[in-house]
Amino acid sequence: MNALMTRALWRAVAIPVFAALSLAAWGADGSAILQQQCAACHNLTGPAPQTLQALWNRKGPDLFYAGNKYREAWLVSWLQKPKPIRPAGEFYGDHIKPGPKGDEVDATTLKAHPALGQGEATAVAAALMKLKAHDDLIAREKIEPGTLSKSMGEMVFDKFLGCMACHRIEPDYGGLSGPELYTAGERLQPQFIASYIRSPQAWDPKIWMPNKHVSDANIQKLVRYLELLSKENAHEK
Amino acid sequence: MRNNRLVLLAVLTAVAGASSAAETAADNYKTYCVQCHGSQGNGKGINIRDMSVQPRDHTDAKAMSGRTDDELFKVIKEGGLSIDKSVLMPPWGDTLSDGEIRDMVQHLRGLCKCRYGS
User: Fold this and answer.
1) Which value does ipTM take for this structure?
2) Residue in A with minimal Cα distance to B43
């Protein structure tokens, strides 16, 4: 066989084979997976629940503004190894029972989240990042650079604003009805954190997080504090 | 004339019902208050373990009869700080309408089986 023929053969056989292989690994169709495996529990089109009945019926967090909310790298890794974020699930009222000292989370009612392979997770994360229904709210937020000590951040979060009543800032400290926040910095975009604190109702009108009318200065401090907590949590892992 | 007015009233009611969609006080309590005040209304919700000030027991007639309906309205709408109580009691003015808060005050009166002063 001469060199020319070898090259022709290579083109005719090897390239299509490689192309097919890489399609199987990396060409997973993220939007199709979302429709087929995720839409039953997650709202991909909006709007957010407008009535309590719709809020209670929601089976998982809304994803129609995922591209405004999550960090893509976090999505890729979490979708492969999902860990609980809301200690009392969604809707919290369906996962509590009275106990001797008061209500407790009924862990037997919480189910493990489905996991994806690496190729699928990458494709799904890319498809989710295109869902940006709330560019308008994100555009209003400006994150200013600055530093803050952990103890000052904790003072604002716990004492001045009472956010710890519903959120955990350590794996075993804080309230249970809201998402854990010691991982929020790696999970969420800073503008989303700022915007959600400014008005949870702008994102999700019936949600059980109150609008505490937090000042601009404190919103900046809280964003920095949550990013600090996440970095610390990542070191400890 | 009379019939026309009735029809108008029916249409207006339907429109108002669709757009404002007031929820019942019991449903609002279950969604927003139970997380801290508990499914039994006794102040023992899932969030309380690490809270430095404990939520009010809404079935405690003695404590609840110490508040006027206006004070209860104010603390629900504007939060604990508005009546010199803890920041851990949040303001619900962006979540509930004034009408829903008035209904909530009456719901609390049902839980404590009490009125102001008795």
Assistant:
1) 0.87
2) A102
